[in-house]
Amino acid sequence: MRLWLCIALLSLALCASADRPAIVRAGHFVRDAAGGAWDMYRAYRDMRRANYRGADKYFHARGNYDAARRGPGGAWAARVISDARENWQSGVSGRGAEDTRADQEANRWGRSGGDPNRYRPAGLPRRY
């Protein structure tokens, strides 16, 4: 609930402009953010289902890529979710700073429009 409240308030603040009513722009931002959050969840769900060693970077890049394609709200949601996940995992997973840096690189690559298949491991089933 707090996340949605933050999204709504941030979207109102970011989207105020003279060319469109602020509420319309805010609505688009929120819609993109919600869709981006769904894209991130879908990539996470697929990663869990695939359970394929070495594929995590691909799914990080794919989730960020799909979310960012929705627009500024989707890119914002992808950045917030990715940063929160990496901050939490870096203290819990024990995989170390190198893995966190590699995950963040894949996140940035996807958000910037780079092809997620750059991180796709050989042998990963086509449905992913």
What's the topology here?
Blueprint: H1 2-14, H2 22-50, H3 56-68, H4 72-92, H5 97-111
Function: Major acute phase reactant. Apolipoprotein of the HDL complex.
Family: Belongs to the SAA family.
Organism: Malurus cyaneus samueli
What descriptive keywords fit this protein?
128 residues, mainly alpha, Serum_amyloid_A, HDL, 0% strand
Unreliable segments (pLDDT under 50, ≥5 consecutive)? none
In percent terms, what proportion of residues is strand?
under 5%
Strand runs, count = 0
Strand count, sense and barrel status of the largest sheet are:
none
Q: Strand pairing plus helix content: what structural class?
A: mainly alpha
Signal peptide: 1-18
GO cellular component, one term: high-density lipoprotein particle
Region (Disordered): 88-128
Protein name: Serum amyloid A protein
